[in-house]
Structure formats: structure tokens, C-alpha cells
Amino acid sequence: MTDLALAIDLGGTNIRAGLIDPSGTIVTQAETRTRAMDGPIVVLDQIAALAAQVLQGTEVKGVGMCSPGPIDTLKGQTFFIQTLAGFEGFPLRQALSDRLHLPVQVENDGISGAVAELCFGAGRAYQDFVYATISTGIGGGIVVDGRPLRGRRGMAGHIGHMAFHRDWPRHKGGKLPAFEDYGAGPALTARAMALAAKTPTSPLHSEILDARAVYRAAAQGDHLAQSLVHDEAELLGMGFASLAHILSPQAIILGGGMAQAWDQLQPTLQASLDAHLKPGFEGIPILRAELGTTSSLIGAAALIFRPELASSHP
């Protein structure tokens, strides 16, 4: 048996598979668009086909898989995945193990990213840190005393669902707005669209907007875009300060799509965090994730090489 692991990153848009060695190096990988609305059996067929393409007959130690949450990683069972139809109460770990005839570890993608940074990235120097991944939503993983924090059902670390402000508009059913409702990419885009419509002098006024367009315009010197980026960094710093007071981490590591705008976000983001910390909590650096968009994939493989970091043993 070769000293390799098969890693699967299941997302609502894409599925990625890779062969990864114990150093966290991706030996080979492949990707396909997720048939997200066709149900778990079809998605499992896609995963199996992608695994066969990557493996090409290679033997592996096991399979590490990460998925959007919430997922009960102790049982290997999904609750509800907003971007994947039909996964309510689905026994993901057992179904994948039966399909691939291999032992499988299943993990939330945020925790998987934290494990990757702990083993191979920006978290190697720390025993206690928060990993925050910010793109279309906000997810995360928390490392305490050198191990991922699991909590009930292995579901700790859903930092994007942290209630953010009681006076802001509530969701249907009266639920409070969450951190990701104001700090994730779609929220930045919504603010940009509202302000750009009133600012014909801004290049954002005539552009098809998303978060990348805002950062691009800010880098080119547009004052409206720069103001939006500043406000985004301020909001994220406020949320990070709440996490810092609860967890007292040595560092906060930023991953996901927002990390690609690191140079624009970092000064205000760090200043916002520092400004909102109480005495005794000062000195927490915000670091850029080192593994980029591959962190969750690599973290899934790390659970095979470092089973003591996994939530369960198959």
C-alpha cells in the first residue's frame, strides 16, 4: 500500500478529488461540476467516478471527505446542506465507504481547512487559533490545545451563524441576522449595488457586480469601492473580536475567497480587531491562510494520516 490518501471536497458547485501524501502535497487531482439538485445517489456516482479517475488503481490508506455543514461527524450523517438537494439525514460516511470499499472519515469543510492549516500551513506555530473561511458564506474551524474543537455532534465552529445585531432585519421565522449575513461576499455585493446605483461617477455604477469587482475597483483607486472594502474589513474585525473574547486564540487565520484580497483587507481588518478587544486580549494577529483554496481538500487527507485529529475512527 502506498503512503497516500484519497481526499474528496464536496461542494455545491464543484467536487474535487486528490491523491495527497503525508507532507500535504497534492500528487494529482481532478474536478467536476456537482449535480447538486439530483440527489445523493447521483452525487455519490460522481464522487466514485472522480475517485476512479484520480486513483487509476493506486492503493491508498483511506479516504478523507469534507462537506458543507451542518453534518454530524460523529455519526457521519448530514442534517441539511443548503446547496445540495436531498441530503437531509443522509448517512454520508457509510454510503461513501460502501461505494469505494475503503475506510472513510467525513468532516465539515471549515474544520477540515483548520486541520490543514494546523498540520501544513499558517497554524503550525500555534496550539490555539480560529480559522475563518469567507466567500459566499462564512465558515470556520477552531483549534484548541492543538486539536480541532468538536462540540456536540462534532459541529462546533459554525462561526458564520453567530448572531450579529438584534436591531437589523430578521430572517423569516424571527431568527436574528448572522455574521455571514453582513460579512460574506453576497452582503458586500448587496451594499455595493445599493450605493453604486446612487453614484454614477463610480465604475461600479455600470459594472455587473460581485465582491471581486468591488476589490478590483478599489485597487484601481475608486473611492466608493475603497469605502466598501474599508467597511467590510471593519465588520469582519468586529466579528473576529467576538470570537477572540470567547476563545482567546493565539491567532486568527483568514481563508476562502476573501483572502485573495488580503492586501486590501488586512490593515483595516487588523485595526478593527485591535480596536474592539478588551484589555488583556490584545496582540492577536490575523494571518492569511497559506494553503488557499486547497485547504479543505488537504485537511481531509490529513485526517487519514493523523487519525487522532479526526472526529471518529471508521
Task: Provide an overview of this structure.
The protein is of the alpha/beta class. Helices cover 36% and strands 18% of the residues. It has a five-stranded mixed sheet with strand order 3-2-1-4-7, sandwiched between helices. Strands 10-9-8-11-12 form a five-stranded mixed sheet, sandwiched between helices. Helix 3 (109-120) packs across helix 9 (295-305). The longest helix is centred in the last third of the chain and has 25 residues, at 223-247.
Helices and strands in order, then pairings?
Blueprint: E1 5-10, E2 14-20, E3 26-33, H1 40-55, E4 63-67, E5 71-72, E6 77-78, H2 92-100, E7 104-108, H3 109-120, E8 129-134, E9 138-144, E10 147-148, H4 179-183, H5 185-196, H6 211-219, H7 223-247, E11 251-255, H8 262-276, E12 286-288, H9 295-305
Parallel strand pairs: 1-4, 4-7, 8-11, 11-12
Antiparallel strand pairs: 1-2, 2-3, 5-6, 8-9, 9-10
Helix pairs in contact: 3-9, 5-7, 6-7, 7-8
Largest beta-sheet characterization:
5 strands, mixed
Oligomer, anyone? single chain
Average pLDDT level: 93
- State the helical fraction: 25-40%
Instruction: Give the name of the CATH architecture of the largest domain.
Output: 2-Layer Sandwich
- Topology pattern, helix = H, strand = E: EEEHEEEHEHEEEHHHHEHEH
Backbone shape:
globular
Q: How many DSSP E strands?
A: 12
